Amino acid sequence: MKKLITLALFLCLPASIFAEAKDLKIVTLNGTVSEIVFALGKGKLVVGNDTSSLYPPEALALPKVGYQRMLSAEGILSLKPNLILGLEYAGPPEVIEQLKSAGLKVIIYPGLPGVEPALNNILAIGKEIGAEKEAQKLVQDIRKKHSKIAEKVSKLKSKPKVLFVYHRGTGLAQVSGTETPADEMIRLGGGINAVSGFTGFKPITPEAVIAAQPDIILIPSRGLESLGGKDGVFALPGVKDTPAGKKSRVVAIDDLVLLGFGPRLGQGIEELFESFHPKTTDKK
Amino acid sequence: MIVSSLETSSPKLESKGEEKKKKIPPIIVYAALAVGLFGISILSLKFGSIQLSIGEILKVLVLGQDSLSELEVPHSILVWNLRMPRLVLSMLVGASLASAGVCIQGLFRNPLVEPGFIGVSPGAALAASTWIVFSEKILTFFPAELRGKESFLLQLCAFAGALSVSFFLHVVSKREGGGFSLVLVLAGIAVNATVVSLLGFLSYLADDTQLRNLTFWSLGSMAVASWHKIYLLGLVLLIVVLFFPVLARGLDALALGEAEAFHIGFKVRRIRNLTIVLASLLVGVSISICGNIAFVGLIVPHILRMVLGPGHRTLLPASLFGGALLLAIADLTARTIAFPSELPIGIIAAGIGGPFFLFLILQAKRREGEFR
């Protein structure tokens, strides 16, 4: 009898102890995840997000729980969410464990750059927040754009060498090696990463830039702003003496479009292809 | 020498404020610290995402989770899973760092040195970081649970790092006849500079995840609190506390000067070695758990020396509790001041400690009469 009562009580327990299970109250821990939730039309369910959630403007206006790698459990709990969505960068791991132990549903998706992982994340998040149809539609749309560009890329006779420059506020600018979102996007847009000797990011050196001989400098919009526009890019060590510097070819694309692997991935691939191969796009 | 007049054993230091210094009986200081610790515990358990009343806290602490109503279960989770581990860990780390500070100040007979800025803590952090970066790259034949951040070997490495630096500084200062010397401070600065450059080199080699761990260490945080870490540091601290009577007698004797200590029958070398090992153990293990937190080892002993006098028999245990109190206050501040985000505790400690240190130096200068 006692067991039955306990079982009955257990079944009556709400899904999460910090909020009623009726409505979803979501906290997103990553800019891309935030963008996905909003793109699937469920932005109203989000009660807070991290400092990397910059788009759409509605997401930017929500309460911030800190930077995605330096979260605080109490801060997230204070928003009384019942669903927490993040990418694998969310941390410190102990905080994620604390949230789980507080009975919250925490789902962490893989953050690997690539079209398929990105589309899988959109589908998984759609399923989780009750927007499966919207997610499928969005994924189809991205696939269409991607395959259209992929076909054009396969027909290319030559590909430009692209140097990705990352710069935030003060300090050294960095260039991207392989195995980064930037490296993957350059490939998807029909370019070749001008730097391939290392993985991840390394501080920019004039020798490395000149040795790489890039035809194009690719930079996220906010990075361009923090360098003070195109002139700032050409003032970077060595850039002036490359083909890109001589032809003054700088491509700047919104950070989350370019590197987020989120809902605007298709748009990002298209923009990149157009700026890498202006002549081919004119013809068609 | 500016600081020579501030030596723990210096008669000058006591001549000025001796009556004032000895005014407060140790029992009152202990009582005040106990009240403070109790107060900060209540506040730490009370404040956060959901404010709990004293009644709710007591209920959660006394009753098991089964006998709580459905509405009270979240309170129990807040207290036992989130707030209590942070509170206990910050107290243990504070106690460890303050005690280590007293040991190192006694060893070098200089109240202005601190594990943080003579390079002992950075040495521990460097060793721990080296372990994080290389254990996963090179020791691939090790079982996974012995590699990386979760392994107890991390603590061992940090201890070894702290120990090497302490020992090196000790050798340097011994050449100078022991006690305070400008050479010691300069050697500390040199060690610090070397560590910074090596950490820079490590961050160049590290992958993204490892890099996050390295940056985490330079700031310190109690967000990583877990019962497992508490048991580990608690055990280390307990072992050191068992040595307190020996340490106190030895450091008091050292304060007289090495030769004098030797003549009244102390085995000076043994005392020194024991002090170095225990202080490095405290610094190494706390730093490897929650990152580099500076200045605790300086502020706490200094204030307590002013009220208790320089005798290590009272100074050591009082610093233990004082450090616990200071860091518990710092952590509560760190997690509530920028809510719902969190500040690294190291920033708060350094923010209080830096200006305080400057004040100490100026005071020492004034006592030298150079401010007339």
Automatic annotation (TrEMBL), chain A:
Keyword Metal-binding set for record: no
InterPro entries registered for this protein in UniProt: ABC_Transporter_SBP (IPR050902), ABC_transptr_periplasmic_BD (IPR002491)
PANTHER family according to UniProt: HEMIN-BINDING PERIPLASMIC PROTEIN HMUT (PTHR30535:SF4), VITAMIN B12-BINDING PROTEIN (PTHR30535)
Signal peptide extent: 1-21
Domain of life: Bacteria
Keyword flag Mitochondrion: no
Domain Fe/B12 periplasmic-binding: 25-280
PROSITE patterns reported for this sequence: FE_B12_PBP
Protein name: Hemin ABC transporter substrate-binding protein
Keywords: Signal
Organism (species): Leptospira hartskeerlii
From TrEMBL, chain B:
Keyword Transport listed: yes
Main location: membrane
Any one GO BP annotation for this protein: siderophore-iron import into cell
Compartments where located: Cell membrane
Membrane topology: Multi-pass membrane protein
UniProt keyword annotation of Plastid present: no
Keywords noted in UniProt: Cell membrane, Membrane, Transmembrane, Transmembrane helix, Transport
Pfam assignment, any one: FecCD
TM annotation in the entry: 27-45, 87-108, 152-173, 179-206, 227-248, 276-303, 343-362
Gene Ontology CC entries for this record: plasma membrane
GO MF entry, a single one: transmembrane transporter activity
Family assignment from sequence similarity: Belongs to the binding-protein-dependent transport system permease family. FecCD subfamily.
Protein name (record): Heme ABC transporter permease
Organism: Leptospira hartskeerlii
Source lineage: Bacteria, Pseudomonadati, Spirochaetota, Spirochaetia, Leptospirales
